[in-house]
Amino acid sequence: MPSLPEKIQTIYTITMKKIISALCLAALLLTSCGSVPITGRKQLNLVSDAQVLQSSLASYQSFMSSASISTQKVQSEQVTRVGKRIAAATEAYLNANGMSDQVKNFAWEFNLVKSNEMNAWCMPGGKIVVYEGLMSIVNSDDDLAVVLGHEVAHAVAKHANERMSQQVAASAGAKILGAVMQGQSYNTQVIAQQVYGLGAQYGVMQPFSRSHESEADKMGLVLMTIAGYNPQNAISFWQKMSANSSSSTPEFLSSHPSHETRIANLTKWVPEVKKQYGK
After folding, report:
1. Which of 56, 94, 119, 253 has a Cα at 20 to 30 A from 190?
2. How far is CA 166 from CA 21, 69, 146, 172, in A?
3. CA gap 113, 46 in Å, rounded
4. Which range has highest mean pLDDT (32-46, 83-97, 115-129)?
5. Cβ atoms within 10 Å of 214's Cβ, excluding its own
6. What are the beta bridge partners of residue 109?
7. Residue 205: phi, psi to the nearest 5?
8. How many structural domains is the chain composed of?
9. pLDDT digits over 50-68, tens only?
10. Which range marks the domain in which residue 55 is found?
């Protein structure tokens, strides 16, 4: 009679084969591809722009209804000034490359809110929010352009659409897997679903989040360069972010690349971006 570890290994092997079959079937049934501007990467797109924009606008309005708008006049003007230049550069790039439809439903807004958190975000639809805490390490418009270029890139790349699409696909894959495993024992089915859940989270969802961050970093460099800002500042800015970070989560469990990985990538990309998009 095989020992318990051997049983687990056998179940795991059978389960993984069935998972692969289930995922392949899910992919065949569900895959719909789009392309990300600038990088050209193919992406899963199962959720319409209208659905994402409606949802994100509701979230944005809810946030703004309770947020405290900053009274820091100079910094607020800086956020608006840099934001408008990044937005104009984004539209100019897309228009010049036959992709004006990518932001046709964007209505840009730029906000600085009261919070000590070092954060910023751009909702699908062009709703940009910067937290006062982040401004403590912003020493110039070029620094701020690093942040806003990155956040606008997330929106232009439709990372929110893709994230939602991944959730839809993962849910469908789990249902298909359940059907495939119906002939197995209850314990085997439970293990299969647990393995699928871990695989979906750490094998797909988390790496895609890291790839989104890296893609937004590279696209952000392009957008800020087109807008006339110095992409070299991206390296020093993220070095400051690293110095002010207390995160100790291992990279493979994190939704963001480590600061070391990010800085190394930026160091590699900056010369390329300058050469191709610099004036």
Report:
1. 253
2. 17, 34, 28, 10
3. 33
4. 83-97
5. 18
6. 127
7. -60, -50
8. 1
9. 888 888 888 889 999 999 9
10. 44-163+208-277
